[in-house]
Specification:
homodimer; alpha/beta; Urease, subunit C, domain 1; TIM Barrel; 2 domains; 8-stranded mixed β-sheet; 23% strand
Chain lengths: 451, 451
């Protein structure tokens, strides 16, 4: 049997600053064309230079040098939407439609012990790390995901979820629940794990609550993450054309539907702006895509989750062409399966290509790195290999059984990438996933302790 | 770096007959409902019994017993269509349309040395084995794939491809090339690696050649494998509505198009019958699906390849409902990526579900095992766990980072399965892929030698 022990490592590290050069057959800065025999110089937690290997070696002042050989070195992948603490609820009810699936998820959640969620979040965070993910934007009911991100060493934003739409459920109760969640979050926050707020969705949060949280978000510069236009059921519920089943009470939610489509509703509430990230946006018109693009808000697509819940196919080609800040996320394991951005890119590629709106593999890798960073408002820090940005990197072997023979690095990542072929994952200059112990020799900034 | 050495093992084995019981949390016979805490008793190269673990232990006469714990034990996966010797041409020209892609593939093939193809076939066969595949139906230009199957120990049918449609290319030349290929194949044939013939496709093989090979197939009981109704271009070429670019000469193929759609053409030539397997069948009507179902011929779908080459979406739901003998294959790495049946099932699930024709995960596992065996005419020997059938098995860990939390075994296989979580692959009672050395203790029928 494959034991869990031995598969994962955590690292303790000192603040000692080191310089090192990492090189590989391919370096993908994302902000510039691929470099054949490229290299990246890292100083402490930052990228200092990116360029052809001979130039970086010439400029080097005794930096240690690690050559990855036949591999692709790229920015760490950005999982721009996840629910880490649902990792043990993997693949819940794959034959249910969306409203019934939410009810089933709620039922299954209620059968779990709190420890299950914490351990699930830890395993989910490790699973992300193994798959080259360096940043996770996580929506959560608890502080478990933030604790897991902190412990495992992945960068992240933890968005405590806010619910409250039923007329029988006072707004003060929603805000009190949020206050408690934020208090529990505090111990795990840092430069690496940052806070946000997630007003869950327009069918689960009332307008006055959205308005309150929008003001707080702007006053305190807290990012917001909102599930939007996910299903046709949601659109019909917002338009007042069908009732919405309550996940907490028997029967239907008691509310006055806004009478608008999702994007128009968000616009009226002043939420179409930078600092807000919308998840899914499957049920949007061409004109609504234009409004999203012009607003500066981010959008995150979760193709496997949309297929799973049969909510439709997001118009990714149109969004990219319109200039939407577009990232990609795994959503929770409950509606996708493995927490793998490789799987997610591949699903998007297959589905879009099969239905007549092909995307290039370059566009998908962009979505999974630079695009995700933009969608989360983090593009000044992460998402591309540029001097001054954080040293969040990963690398894919091209000598692995599933990648060998690939000529193009973007094709290799999207069509053949998997956790198996990830060589390491580095966050802020620290190799937090290093199964091949590449960094034991050249970089002494931290020491490995088996968990 | 992950070295290749150490990843793969080959086994030499004696003919010593052993009995053993394999058990797991889930046993999927495929011919019967899943067994919770089930077991399989193996005697030599055959399955002797399948049932609840307590019953098999009670009936046991000192058999060795290996419990796989939290895992799924199932029939080995059937990769019902592949081109192993193209493994190093992985992901060729993913932005080309079908006719131009064939030309690009031919161009790339001509730049490879013969040794490349042999090594590619070996690595491809190992990749299949790592992914739980125990049978490969391979179409090939050479004997390399048969040699690789023989060496690696996977079961397979090797179909030498026959081409010859151009009026300038005499039929005798096609038959002479086939004769030479069959001669080179001879040393690698056995009970495990069997021969077939692949008249390539209706746009690359003339009618008289099809007729000749159909007679030979029936006289010698040789299975046939034919690419059929793959693209709209093919249908239009057969109907005489557009010319077909020649892969070997400048310009277009010189031929008289049959003036019929693909299925009708095959029917007229007497090829709609048991013993013939058609690959792709994307461009088929509802009525043609009925004719395929009634004929006893097999059909193999390659969803990733169809998406890759933008040839359309196969009507799998209709085919299953009509009773077509339907298997699934990876096609060559040149038009898919990893040679993984997990990836292939997942692609089918995602694409069919996104486009309104959902399939259950049970149906997909059926296609990948029993269905593939039926499509290849091998269902009396492989494809399900039944007494008397060959002991071709694999197992998936449910404790792996990407599978943990799954409740349903079919969901786990289709949504979360990957080579990483495969515990072993057994062909004819021999563990030919055993990375965890599960079989070193209980079963001494063979000894491992690192390659």
């Amino acid at each position: 049997m494959i034991g869990k022990a031995g598969l994962f490592f955590t690292f303790t590290f000192s603040l000692f600053t080191f310089n090192m050069i990492l090189s590989a057959r391919w370096v993908l800065p994302l902000s510039a064309p691929p470099l054949l025999r490229g290299a990246v110089r890292i100083c402490g937690d930052r990228i200092e230079a990116v360029g052809p290997l001979p130039r970086l070696l010439e400029e080097s002042d005794g930096d240690s040098h690690l050559d990855l050989g036949n591999a692709i070195l790229l920015p760490g992948l950005v999982n721009a939407h996840c629910h880490l603490d649902y990792t043990y609820l993997r693949a819940v009810g794959p034959d249910l439609d969306f409203p019934d699936w939410i009810l089933e998820l709620t039922r299954r959640k209620n059968t779990c012990a709190p420890d299950d969620f914490l351990n699930a979040a830890r395993d989910g965070a490790r699973e992300c790390l193994r798959g080259g993910i360096t940043t996770v934007a996580d929506c959560t009911d608890s502080a478990h995901a933030a604790q897991a991100l902190h412990e495992i060493g992945i960068r992240g934003i933890s968005f405590p979820e806010v619910f409250g739409v039923d007329d029988r459920d006072p707004m003060e109760a929603s805000l009190e629940r949020l206050r408690q969640k934020e208090e529990r979050l505090q111990p795990w926050l840092s430069d690496r794990v940052m806070p946000g707020i997630s007003p869950h969705a327009p069918y689960s949060v009332r307008a006055t609550l959205f308005e309150h949280l929008n003001r707080r978000s702007q006053d305190e510069r807290l990012p917001l993450m909102i599930h939007l236009a996910e299903s046709d059921d949601e659109v019909r519920a917002l338009l007042g054309k069908q009732p919405w089943k309550s996940p907490i009470r028997e029967g239907f939610v008691q509310w006055t539907a806004p009478g608008e489509r999702p994007v128009a509703y968000m616009e009226r509430l002043g939420l179409l702006r930078p600092g807000v990230t919308f998840i899914h946006c499957v049920q949007v018109t061409h004109e609504e895509i234009g409004r999203l693009a012009g607003s500066g808000a981010g959008v995150v697509t979760c193709p496997r989750s949309n297929a799973y819940l049969r909510t439709g196919i997001a118009r990714l080609r149109e969004m990219l062409d319109a200039g939407v800040k577009l990232g990609i996320g795994t959503d929770g394991a409950c509606s996708s399966g493995p927490l793998s951005i490789f799987e997610e890119m591949r699903a998007a590629w297959l589905i879009q290509r099969s239905t007549g709106s092909p995307m290039t593999t370059r566009e998908l890798v962009e979505m999974a790195t630079h695009g995700g960073a933009k969608a989360l408002g983090m593009e000044d820090q992460i998402g591309s290999l540029e001097p001054g940005k954080l040293a969040d990197l990963t690398a894919l072997s091209l000598d692995h059984p599933t990648t060998q023979g690939c000529e193009d690095p973007y094709d290799a990542l999207v069509l053949c990438g998997s956790s198996e072929s990830v060589l390491f994952t580095m966050v802020g200059g620290q190799a937090v996933w290093d199964p091949n112990r590449l960094f034991a020799g050249p970089c002494h900034a931290y020491s490995a302790t088996e968990k």
